[in-house]
From TrEMBL:
The gene is panE_1. This is 2-dehydropantoate 2-reductase. Its EC number is 1.1.1.169. Residues 3-148 form the Ketopantoate reductase N-terminal domain. Pathway: Cofactor biosynthesis; (R)-pantothenate biosynthesis; (R)-pantoate from 3-methyl-2-oxobutanoate: step 2/2. Residues 178-301 form the Ketopantoate reductase C-terminal domain. Belongs to the ketopantoate reductase family. Keywords: NADP, Oxidoreductase, Pantothenate biosynthesis.
Length: 311
């Protein structure tokens, strides 16, 4: 399969490297020139539980340099960059190209649908871990799963083909008619932990310092899942709560991506996570005071990090 990956950060590079190892024709698309240059010169270094090696049978290009129309375009860009990123690869989206979003947050399908018909959009969510250790170097330890479905809910042959291709690459995948449940469950998890760590400027395990930390995180989970139910989505509150409790205990020293963005002076995904939840909550008349307060606090923190005041 000809596969292009739009957004070759940690997750995009991990997926691209593993897919290339199994013989798929992979092109990584990104605007991080240092990352692209190292991959072009030395291959992509993958450090996983199965070993440390270099993957050389893939391309790493800027979107404007790519010319081959892929069978599958996997989108890993941050939500606020989706529309601009899609515009940069319009020439690559052919009449039979499928697009799979594995992005965080809400609103990504709507952005994709402005360019690709819904019947060729695959909605997915993944729990695979990955970190960018440096230019051309991705580190991933542990396991995850991918759940996906077509955006219009119709079970098409391409869906099963993509599931098989990803699974063959070691990226355990499954078709799931309730993928929107998985999306909202991940949104609830992220809406609780990401902003709390960002406001505190502390890793995930710091939330366990006092009982108020887990209690506040679980309150936010309850608010987000209430909005999901009001939107007609079936979600598993017990599973999300268990995942949050486990993360606070087990993810020692881990700084969520939102906190990493603030520390680097980059915009965060707060609008597509807590912000999108607040918008949906207002539409359905659901109160989410804790979720909204965290959104406002992160906006303030973000403003200070991206536009610091001169002493």
């Amino acid at each position: 399969m000809k596969i292009a990956i739009l957004g070759a950060g940690a997750m995009g590079s991990l997926f691209g490297g593993l897919l290339a190892e199994t013989g798929e024709q992979v092109t990584l698309l990104d605007i991080n020139d240092a990352h692209l240059a190292v991959i072009a010169a030395h291959g992509l270094r993958l450090e996983t539980d199965t070993g440390d090696r270099h993957v050389r049978n893939l391309q790493a290009l800027r979107p404007s340099q790519a010319t081959q129309v892929p069978d599958l375009l996997i989108v890993f860009t941050k939500s606020m960059h989706t529309r601009a990123a899609l515009a940069s690869v319009r020439q690559l989206i052919g009449p039979s190209t499928y697009v799979l979003t594995l992005q965080n947050g809400l609103g990504n399908v709507e952005a994709l649908a402005s360019v690709v018909p819904q019947e060729r959009i695959l909605v997915g969510v993944t729990t695979w871990p990955a970190d960018l250790a440096g230019p051309g170097h991705v580190r991933s330890h542990g396991a995850g799963v991918i759940r996906m479905m077509t955006a219009d809910g119709v079970d098409r042959p391409m869906l099963e083909r993509v599931v098989c291709v990803l699974s063959d690459a070691g990226l355990r995948s499954q078709a799931d008619a309730n993928v929107w449940g998985a999306v909202w469950e991940k949104v609830a998890f992220n809406a609780a932990l990401n902003p709390l760590c960002t406001v505190l400027n502390r890793p995930v395990d710091a939330l366990g310092a006092v009982e108020d930390g887990p209690a506040l995180a679980l309150t936010i989970v309850e608010e987000v899942l209430a909005v999901a139910r009001a939107s007609g989505v079936n979600v598993d509150a017990i599973k999300v709560s268990e995942n949050v409790r486990h993360a606070i205990v087990a993810h020692r020293g881990h700084k969520p991506s939102m906190l990493q963005d603030v520390l680097a002076g980059r915009p965060t995904e707060i609008e597509s996570i807590n912000g999108a939840v607040v918008v949906a909550a207002r539409r359905h008349g659901v109160r989410v005071p804790h979720t909204e307060t965290l959104m406002q606090l992160v906006r303030l923190v973000q403003a200070q990090s991206t536009h610091p005041q001169t002493p």
